[in-house]
């Protein structure tokens, strides 16, 4: 009967290997499905942005808004480069900003007292 037990053990080992293989395939499939799900969620975000009200504003009005914001320096994050801030938002805003020389002509550079002191020390 030891021969019969050995045969059963071989069968069990074979079954265990098949289960491991099946588990690996299923785990791989789960990873693939999760990655597809993530891509679909990103696509939904992109599609929702197409319905954003700002997308309905004509380029001419958008330019006037940029012009006003840059003229009044309303963008405090980059106070010396408001045109750069505006043109960094998205492709459409970049194209509108690049087509306007008015907002780019207002770029200014201000040196703080600290930077001029550093400059004097290096001289």
UniProtKB/TrEMBL annotation:
Domain of life of the organism encoding this protein: Eukaryota
The record places domain F-box at 51-107
**What protein am I looking at?**
F-box domain-containing protein
* Keywords noted in UniProt: Coiled coil
InterPro entries associated with the record = F-box-like_dom_sf, F-box_dom
The coiled-coil regions, if any, are 2-29
């Amino acid at each position: 009967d030891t021969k019969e037990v050995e045969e059963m053990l071989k069968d069990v080992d074979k079954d265990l290997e098949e289960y491991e293989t099946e588990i690996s395939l299923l785990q791989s499939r789960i990873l693939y499905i999760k990655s597809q799900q993530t891509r679909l969620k990103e696509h939904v975000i992109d599609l929702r942005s197409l319905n954003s009200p700002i997308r309905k504003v004509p380029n001419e009005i958008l330019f006037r808004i940029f012009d006003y914001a840059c003229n009044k320096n309303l963008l405090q994050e980059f106070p010396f480069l408001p045109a750069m801030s505006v043109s960094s938002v998205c492709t459409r805003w970049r194209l509108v900003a690049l087509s306007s020389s008015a907002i780019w002509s207002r770029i200014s550079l201000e040196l703080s007292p600290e930077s001029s002191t550093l400059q004097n020390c290096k001289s």
